[in-house]
Amino acid sequence: MDNQNIASSKKYILVFVALVALVLISTGISTLNLGYLNPLLTIGLAGVSAIIVLTQFMKIKLDGSFARLLVAGILALALLIFFVAFVG
Amino acid sequence: MSQSLSMTGNLSKPKETSLSGVWLFIFIELLLFAGLFLLYAVYRYKNGMAFDLAASELSVASGVWNTIIILSGSLVMAFASIAIRKGNKMAALFWLLGVLFIGFMFLVNRYFEWKGRIDFGLFPGSEELARLGHGDVLFFGLYFFMTGLHALHLLAGFVVLIYVTSKVNNNSLGANNYALLDKTGTYWHLATLIWVLIFPLFYLL
Fold first, then answer.
1. pLDDT at B89 over 90
2. N or C: which end of chain A has fewer CB within 10 A?
3. B78 vs A12: CB contact, 8 Å cut-off?
4. pTM here?
5. Where exactly are the structural domains of chain B?
6. Radius of gyration of the CA atoms of chain B, in A
7. CB–CB of A23 and B64 under 8 A?
């Protein structure tokens, strides 16, 4: 592989490791009794994971209005789920 | 057509038309699942205790395992994308077959997880689930519908991936025209994106 491809492969491996780490952290947090922080952190970390998948694997660039709409939609959805399901 | 999957928001550029179509499809898919996520949130608000108890019936280890499987599928799909850009046909085929294998592993894990719930009578329409109460019926109804819909998306991706793999194999796709592989990859990553949002709702909350 040329240097650019090697760099890309390394980047993807790092992204994968980061996503797995986020999953394990979320799972660990779910075993703790942190009150409202539990769903807030779990949904927040899921939102971060989703944005990482969008920007790194799907290569959406955050400099476009459509991309910003997608990311804002995911964040708004995460907040809505938290407030509707857990705060009421 | 641009080989980059960037989306700058300028839909009038002809070179981005094809990819804009993919992103429009993805946007509609995300809207569909967003509706289901909100439905989950409303039902959970109304049946908080029942959802907590019903969620404890699911195997967190199985959910984590499936999440790692589908993330590795996206990683391998990215490797296939790199290989085709370099014009390395054998490597691209190797990684594409790897994605197919990983997707199959995900579906096998999903099958055993569903089988476990069904063996316990925890499926929509069962007497056992009806006895547990309205909240459990809603939880498992949503669980089977959302994970089933996700599995259907994966199956659709599976079919397209087999087609793309055959195109790479007969040299119809290569270093100079890899847009179809990129679009398929984007769809595959969409399945990963949806799963990382589904996983915490049913297994961790």
1. yes
2. C
3. yes
4. 0.87
5. 18-204
6. 19
7. yes
